[in-house]
Specification:
Layout lengths: L1 E2 L7 E5 L4 H11 L3 E6 L21 E3 L5 E3 L1 H12 L10 H30 L5 H31 L12 H16 L8 H11 L2 H9 L9
């Protein structure tokens, strides 16, 4: 439940078209009351006012009721679960596995996606014929490096998804963490998700959840294809 700057509540600073959407989704899953501040990108970047919230000037940022700003999705999720998941609905069923998959979401699969994104951004801002040349370079990089890396990573995740959720029978932190790179890769069409039926159905289950739909309504845009 979103409150209009009510004291004593966590305040979430959200940025459109960004990974902070997964935190907004999890806040809705928790069903707690919180303040929501939506920020809008300026020329594709986070707006300057986010510097007033956290030194790095990026989102997501959660400010605790004690006025402590927390950046980084995994840290925010850890705090929210510890502070507000009193009945253990989202508790890790295997803590080591949960930590491994949550780290994998940011440091492994997310890094490979950024390589292709950089090529897209540079090519999109370059004049012809340099843009054509960069497109060709990116195609070769995908064929020789990022494509095979995606295949290995997705085969691993497909193998790990032995239940409805990566956390097991119940949704957990690893599912929320993995949702962003999966959404990003799907929107950019870097990976053909139909080749990985378990992951395809997992994403469908997320998008069918009431909390996901509510978060999409409360956010201010989630168009990752235009990044």
């Amino acid at each position: 439940m979103v409150s209009p700057n009510k004291p004593g509540l966590p305040t979430f600073h959200h940025l459109n078209d960004s990974q902070s959407q997964r935190i907004l989704w999890f806040l809705e899953e928790l069903g707690i009351e919180y303040n929501l501040v939506c920020h809008t990108r300026v020329e594709g970047r986070a707006p300057p006012e986010l510097k007033n919230v956290h030194f790095m000037g990026k989102a997501p940022v959660l400010v605790t009721p004690d006025n402590v700003p927390i950046a980084e999705s995994s840290a925010i999720l850890g705090y929210l679960i510890d502070a507000y998941d009193k009945d253990g609905r989202f508790a890790a069923q295997d803590k080591v596995r949960d930590e491994s998959l949550s780290s994998f979401a940011g440091s492994t699969i997310g890094t490979i996606g950024m390589i292709e994104l950089i090529f897209d951004i540079v090519a999109g801002r370059s004049p012809w014929p340099l843009s054509i040349l960069l497109g060709g370079v990116k195609s070769n990089v995908h064929k020789s490096f990022t494509g095979p890396e995606y295949a290995t990573q997705f085969q691993y995740l497909e193998k790990e998804l032995t239940d409805d959720w990566f956390n097991g029978k119940n949704l957990g932190r690893s599912d929320v963490m993995l949702s962003w790179p999966m959404d990003f890769l799907a929107a950019k069409k870097y990976v053909d998700f139909e080749k990985y039926p378990k992951i395809f159905q997992w994403r469908k289950r997320i998008q069918e959840r009431d909390a996901w739909k509510s978060a999409m309504e409360k956010g201010n845009g989630y168009n990752l294809a235009e990044m």
